[in-house]
Please model this.
Amino acid sequence: MNIDIDHQKQNLAGVSRAELAAAMTEIGAEPFRARQLWHWIYHRGSTDFAVMTNLAKPFRERLAEQFALRRPEVATALTSRDGTRKWLLRFADGNEAETVHIPEEDRGTLCVSSQVGCTLTCRFCHTGTQRLVRNLTAAEIVGQVMLARDALGEWPSTPSGAGEDRLLTNIVLMGMGEPLYNFDNVAAAMKIVMDPEGLAISRRKITLSTAGVVPMIERCGRELGVNLAISLHAVSDELRDVLVPLNKKYPIAELLAACGAYPGSSNARRITFEYVMLKGVNDTPAEARELVRLLRGIPAKVNLIPFNPWPGAPYECSRAEAIAAFSDILFAAGYSAPVRTPRGRDILAACGQLKSASQRARRSERAVEPAEA
Ligand code: SF4
Model:
């Protein structure tokens, strides 16, 4: 197949049910064709119309003439010593973003990006040093999940919980970007991902992580009902203003009030508070006790993240004893506060280490700057 011609065709991999139905109407096909295609695309993971054997051959040929079933292109694929895999994906316009798969004993989590770069500039985060290039489209977000399922050899999809031994069971929107600044596309993508007749990943297995875009938090819970994670990282506004500058707009008290009102949260579905452990910055026992005080009344758990260094990072990871003491104080107050084992550090795939070389285009030019060291 001629690649250039293929790239001009509308890509049906990653579209919603409504878009699929509209595409079928446009070519004069019966409405039930959209449902058949949905099954092939999202349940079977087909990338070729020719395999869709319950469609008549002339119709398959017609589909192939008009449409494509493309995945994002893999620019680089790396595997860590611990089994974590990272894909640098290149989208049709040449921009790149990263996706990470973290295998664990009882589950496999895919960390998905929502933007190329990020508008926020969290001080401890490598992505935050890359300016926002653009939002990812819904199809590009879904494409990351489909690409991972290809690479892991996990088609056809099975409903969440039905395949405990599966490699891709959970999704975290914790890759590059602030998902609540691209909410419409993230929501459209997650609705496709959650559809029980397709990729079938349950909302209970999806976690959206935000730096704290307070006005969008309620809508996220109401519309998507996914788990919520907050990048907290500090217990005073003074420090959080530095670590997560979005705090100047939405300070801790407002953020925690929004968390307390998050639709669907309960003791069985707790909000995760992420806290990166930075040596001599935010890791004292007094700060642990203040965290306990702040979280009172919120169904919460805390993830302590030993800082993952990246080239030029302005911080160091806290000492192991400091992390253990911090965790003990939270445990004693009744909070689950596991210390997250760093995964994929050797391939810069761990929390806060993601970055692509895509640069913001100058005026209308496409981004062509060379990769950063
Ligand atoms: S932590 Fe998240 S929101 Fe903050 S700069 Fe990094 S990618 Fe952006």
Observations:
- Residues 362-373 have pLDDT under 50 and may be disordered.
- Residues 118, 120-122, 125, 127-128, 176-178, 211, 231 surround iron/sulfur cluster (CB under 6 Å).
- Residues 278 and 317 are 5 Å apart (CA to CA).
- The two ends are 36 Å apart (CA to CA).
